[in-house]
Structures are given as C-alpha cells and as structure tokens.
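Postdoc handover notes: sequence design on the structure in folder B. Input tokens:
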C-alpha cells in the first residue's frame, strides 16, 4: 500500500471536482489547475481546489484524459490489486452469465480498471489496453489472470487507434502462455470459429449478443440482408431459425471466409459476399421487388472517433439507415446499431427520425436496446454506454 504522503498530487480547478465526486472516472487536462511532472502512467492523488481528497488514479500528462480514477483510498496497483478487481469482475459475470465460458470479463472503468478490456474465450484471454497506467503494469495484470483463471494463454491485441491518444504504440503479442490463432464459442445453439489474433477488436462482438438473441422471434420466413456481417454470427442464427434467404455482406475478405466456414459447420444455408454496405443497398434498391430483403441488419463501425467527427458521423448514419429503409416495404424490419461513444441514445433516435424522413418511410420502434450485461454502464459516466440498437418496422 502506498501512503497518501508518498504520492504526488494534482489540484483541480474550482468546480471541476463535482463530476468526480458524483462517480465519473476521468479528469481532463484542462480541468487541472496545478499539474505535476511525472512519467505517464504514474499513480497520482487528485485533490479538489478546496483541498478535498478525490482519490488515487493513473496520471498521464500527455493525454487529454489526464487522470483516471482507481480508488478513494491509496492503492499499490500491483498484482494483488489487479487480482482483486479482476476476481470481482469474474464473480459478477458468473452471476450474470451462469454456465458461460466466453464473455467480456473486464470492461474498463465499469469494472474499476480504467482503460483495460479483457475478453475471455474459455481458457484464452485477449486484452486491449487504452491507459498508460495499465500498460506499465501488464506483468501484474498477467500474474493476476494466471492466479485467478490459470489460462492457456493471454494475448495483447493492442492495435486500436485510441492508444495513440495515450501515446501508446500499436502492439500485438502473446503476454503469457500459448495462444491459438482461433477459438470456438457457442451462441444461440450454434458454434462459431473466432479469429483471436487477426480479427476485429478482440475477435468477437460480445456486446451484441443479447441484441442478436432478441431477434430470434423475427427470423422465420424472412429474406435477411446482414450488412457488416463480420464472421456471420447473425446470418447463421437467422438461417438456423427459419429465415427464407440470408445474405451476409462484409468489406473484409478474411471475415467473409470465416463467415462461410461458420455457416458450413453449422449447416446454415446462408450466402456471403465481400462488398460495401451502401453499394449493396443501392443494388437492391434498383433491383426487382421479389429479390429485395424484408429484414436488414446494419452494424457499421464507429464513425465518430472523436467529438469533432460527430456531425459528419451523424449525417453518415442517417444516410446509411435511409438507404436501408428505402429498400424495405411495409412490414419490413430494420435492425440497426451505432457503437460510437460520442453518439448518445437521444442522438441515435434522432438519426433514425432523419433517416425515415429522408427515405419517405414511416416506422414504429419495436425495440430500443443497448450493450450486453457483460458491458456494464456506470450511471455517472455516460461514456460507458456506447452501443445503441433499434428494431424498426416499416408501416
């Protein structure tokens, strides 16, 4: 344990402590009245302008997010600390997802470990790190995982562009043990091959699992167009649950190859094509009516990596959803998502209103959902709620 007197302190500007007191986990560089000179990732105490202690966190003088909250009390941030936090996160997943062996084990700030994402695939764990403080303590993280879960291997998938904001390099490597290039997981009565080392993010989109399950009652008899289909999870589930026809489209040839493998291994009659989502929609819009889908899935990548990109991203989301709605006739379904941290639920709903007006369609909202339970949301930190999912019916 580190004594408070041993830590350097940052002092916040007047009034800037309210958000932290309420439970938010970040202090931005422009909120600090008296910064300190320490290496990125150092443990530093934060103090309000009044002198009130706010807690201990990781400090990065080179980042817009300058301080990330760890604890109200002094902590060592060693292997024992990570073991306690990761153990607590694992216990929570055990309660939320009984019997599951693949899920998001740690969702950063929501699990008390800022900038650390850990996805579990049975006995293999894949990490993404967005915080210099965690980066400096990767050995402690690995030791904690080994002590708790005795993994076959732990892999670092540190290739996300957000790392540059912390001054961290792109790096993918084995942290400990042996890591196979692929894993196999179960969902919805099917099994899927997941690319661990070469796939998108950590390999699988656990955050959409409950949204995919919610579509179960709607698949039967539908002509499904699954855009941004990645490795074909939704397409396979649609085909196995009574869809009349399924076409998945993705811009990645590697993803399309795995989607075909997953369809074949599950006996699912789904087709896959490499291509652009908007081009696919344009082709269906001008094609014969009986060839058009009556259920479209949209799950585009984040289009707003920062707030300055938000206006352009909202226009792009509206355009894409409008293109999908133009293809659909009365009774058609659109399952659509956004995964940008900067797009709020209210913004997302407004985008859909704009899209239906642009498409000259009227829709009703059948469902409005968010990320799966293993991606918990901190009420005091809106940034932890990033995924929004809607199911619309054309009327």
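Designed sequence:
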């Amino acid at each position: 344990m580190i004594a408070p007197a041993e830590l350097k302190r940052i002092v916040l500007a007047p009034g800037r402590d309210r958000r932290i007191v309420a439970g938010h986990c970040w202090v931005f560089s422009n909120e600090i009245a008296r910064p300190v000179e320490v290496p990125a990732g150092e443990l530093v105490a934060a103090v309000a302008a009044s002198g009130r202690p706010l807690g201990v966190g990781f400090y990065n003088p080179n980042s817009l997010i300058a301080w990330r909250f760890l604890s109200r009390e002094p902590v060592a941030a060693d292997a024992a600390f990570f073991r306690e936090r990761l153990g607590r996160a694992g216990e929570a997943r055990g309660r939320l997802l009984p019997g599951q062996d693949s899920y998001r084990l740690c969702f950063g700030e929501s699990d008390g470990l800022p900038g650390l994402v850990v996805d579990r695939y049975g006995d293999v764990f894949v990490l993404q790190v967005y915080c210099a403080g965690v980066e400096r303590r990767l050995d402690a993280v690995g030791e904690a995982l080994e002590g708790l879960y005795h993994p076959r291997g732990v892999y670092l998938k540190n290739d996300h562009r957000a790392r540059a904001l912390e001054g961290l390099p792109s790096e993918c490597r084995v942290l400990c043990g042996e890591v196979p290039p692929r894993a196999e997981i179960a969902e919805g009565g099917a099994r899927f091959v997941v690319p661990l080392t070469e796939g998108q993010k950590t390999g699988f989109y656990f955050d959409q699992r409950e949204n995919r399950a919610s579509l179960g009652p709607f698949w039967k008899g539908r002509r499904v167009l699954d855009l941004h289909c990645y490795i074909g999870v939704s397409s396979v589930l649609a085909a196995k649950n009574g869809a009349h026809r399924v076409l998945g489209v993705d811009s990645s040839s590697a993803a399309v190859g795995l989607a075909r493998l997953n369809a074949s291994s599950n006996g699912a009659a789904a087709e896959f094509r490499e291509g652009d989502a908007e081009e696919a929609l344009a082709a269906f819009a001008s094609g014969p009516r009986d060839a058009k889908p009556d259920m479209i899935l949209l799950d585009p990548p984040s289009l707003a990596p920062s707030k300055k990109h938000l206006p352009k991203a909202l226009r792009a989301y509206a355009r894409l959803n409008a293109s999908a709605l133009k293809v659909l006739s009365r009774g058609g379904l659109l399952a659509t998502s956004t995964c940008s941290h900067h797009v709020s639920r209210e913004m997302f709903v407004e985008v859909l209103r704009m899209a239906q007006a642009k498409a000259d369609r009227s829709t009703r909202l059948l469902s409005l959902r968010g990320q799966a339970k293993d991606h918990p949301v901190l009420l005091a930190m809106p940034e932890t709620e990033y995924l929004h999912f809607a199911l619309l019916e054309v009327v």
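Context for whoever picks this up: The mean pLDDT is 96. Don't rerun without checking with the PI first.
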